[in-house]
Amino acid sequence: MTHKRPARLPGTVAAALACLSLAACSAGSTSVGKPTGNSLSIGLAAEPANFDFTRTDGAAIPQALLDNVYETLVKLDQSGTIRPDLATSWSLSKDRRTYTFHLVKDATFSNGARFTAEDAKFSVERVGRAWTVAQKAQMSVVDRVRAVSPTELEVTLKKPSNDWLYRMTTRVGAMFSRTGVRELATEPVGTGPYVVRNWNRGDSITLARRKGYWGRAPHFASVTLKYFKDPTAMNNALLTGTINVIGQMQSPESLYRFQNNSKYRVIEGTTNGEVVLSLNNGSGPMKNRKARQAVRYAIDHKALMDTCWAGRGKLIGGMVPPTDPWYQNLTGLYPYDRDKARKLLKESGEAGRTLRLRIPTLPYATACGTVVKSQLEQAGFKVELDQLEFPAAWLTTVFKNSDYDLSIIGHVEPRDMQTVFGDKGYYTHYDNPAFRALLKKADQGSREQQITAMRAAARLLSEDAAADWLFLLPNLMVADADITGLPVNSVSESLDLTGLGRS
After folding, report:
1. What CA–CA distance (Å, rounded) separates 99 from 295?
2. Are residues 413 and 345 located together in one domain of the fold?
3. Which runs of E-coded beta strand occur in 233-263?
4. What is the pTM of this model?
């Protein structure tokens, strides 16, 4: 099977709700003013902790850098189809283990080095050798990598894997320069059309169009990603012209300010962003299955979404969004039933214990946290609610140290069921051999077997009450009316700026 590149396609924005001289990247404090000329400013909620997504968890870094600063051999288009990027074509051997990629000939990194198959080999092998985040496991199926020539790369897997090529469209597929990985946290070096020009910590990141880029140059010479902790401030920034786009609406109840106004465009679609009520399956009260089931029955999901997210979004009941081929509606597994929740809580023996609900200071989490607390308390739970600064405090307390019973976080990475629940060492600490066996079967089987096994895995996960899925975040964007290239659905973890323009 061979896949070839068509004429290079313009990219599209695909966000979840994240230097002209790289040495000049700074952490200054000057706020960004109104966008002028051939520039664009986009409002976002979650700022990266640094620029190194190989060692730092969270979606904010690939949101800002993937497809813009870093490129991949293959990427997703808006339909979810895998297309060529730094590879012009690829083929798969009959035994479904060896991929052969033919690479572009004229790509260079922002440090001036030429991109070759040796860099691609280095990048693939480096995931297992140097990465520390959970996503590194997605490359563990690789057996060997060979640079056949400067423009031909051969990757042989240990076994057939339906998932591996898809993962090459994500952060683990990012191509790095062999001479440009010493200071990734502050000096990202990629083949993409943009470089980081400036970073005003706590305020904004500015990307500049790169001279000598190998592909089609993006429309905007400068793009500023401006971060807001307050949704109202973000809305006001668009209304006053300080920004041009709200990349992910953080206050859906405020949409009336932009609808039916010819100055703005409102886009509403779907995302990969499951808003998860995370449960600590490894310790404390949530290790008890009946207590977890009680939590699920205690949540009135429709009322919650209406209250904290203005009814925008979709109830799904599991860890698979509708844009994935194995989606199924699992909301019927745990319909709201307060009496059943009370009964299960009593049977669990965990009644009377205080649950620590520790949430990040992100708009959807803070808005929904009080609703979750109230609904659980009405079912007989005792709940202590803590808000932790995001990203630093939440990543340390909840994600790294697992010092929590419940949390609320939007898992916006694509096809992340395996990452979040397939490794018992991950912060959810879910440990179910039957679930992992289904994931393995899905990865190695035919496409039909993959879909069947993934549906079974998602159902098992939901039945086991490994977490509660509050709702799926909508792709809710608002922009100046003349901004073009904005997508209806968000299918990737990147905020791809390359296809944006102005009419």
Report:
1. 45
2. yes
3. 245-246
4. 0.81
Residue 19 — pLDDT band, cuts 50, 70, 90? very low
For residues 169 and 205, membership in a common domain is answered with: no
Residue 303: CB atoms within 10 Å: 12
Predicted local distance difference test score (pLDDT) of residue 37: 57
315 is a domain residue: yes
Residue matched to tokens 């990307």: 207
Q: How far apart are alpha carbons 396 and 385 in whole angstroms?
A: 17
Q: Which domain covers residue 203, as residue numbers?
A: 16-69+192-263+481-503
**357 and 441 assigned to the same domain:** yes
Is residue 156 packed enough to be buried (19+ CB in 10 Å), middle (13-18) or exposed (0-12)? middle
DSSP category for residue 160: -
Which sign does the torsion angle of CA 444, 447, 449, 453 carry?
positive
Whether residue 290 is found in the same domain as residue 164: no
Q: Are strands 87-92 and 2-4 parallel, antiparallel or unpaired?
A: antiparallel
How many whole angstroms separate alpha carbon 323 and alpha carbon 301? 21
For residue 374, give every residue at least 6 positions away whose Cβ sits within 8 Å of its Cβ, in sequence order, or none: none
Residue 102, phi then psi, degrees to nearest 5: -105, 125
